[in-house]
Amino acid sequence: MNEQKLSLRLEKVASFIEPESRIADIGSDHAYLPCFAVLKKLASFAVAGEIALGPLKSAEEQVEKTGLREQIIVRKGDGLEVIQAEDQIDTIVIAGMGGPLIASILEQGKSKLEGVKRLILQPNIAANRIREWGVKNHFRITAETILSEDHKIYEILVLEPSEMALEYSEQELIFGPLLLQEKNQVFREKWRHEQEIWQKIIQNIENEGGDVAKQAKIAELTAKIKLAEDVLK
């Protein structure tokens, strides 16, 4: 993978960047995504944000190597604190983190979201936490996709500000309102696998013998299995 050829996962993330956007890539690692976006004219300007020194140095070297220092700024900082008002960022990308962490980054950086028109988010786990954050903060889901790469399954969510109050059902929050409409093969594979994991956890708890808390966990997982069964019918 490099600035010319991204992984399938990041290429799909990049496909949701509208041409000539001003983007912030949070947790940019080697800055491949912002370099690719600028080279492909998906972005006219980018901030590559990193909190760890190793990846920060890699990002700086990548931007230097590709000759994009005029269009990409690499900054050290925690989450959205790397964004400055003069950047005029309209699109934020956060990819490759857990859903709870992505939601936390957005929550802590809410003051940086003014003027942002699009969030492109790729959680490795617990995408429902991002959907829940979106409902609370008036961001509607405008696109969702699910894909498989190297035996791992990834969901990508696109959120945009909404003036209207939003409501999603429990099923929509867990499985994704747009993914539910398609229910493609990868979606079915993911949730069959999740069912198997939940069933194994239940069996382990039952084998150990359970107190009240463990029985509550069994009830919670049983309800999730039933939800998945209903969805996959």
TrEMBL record:
It comes from the Bacteria. Gene3D superfamilies: 1.10.287.1890, Vaccinia Virus protein VP39 (3.40.50.150). This is SAM-dependent methyltransferase.
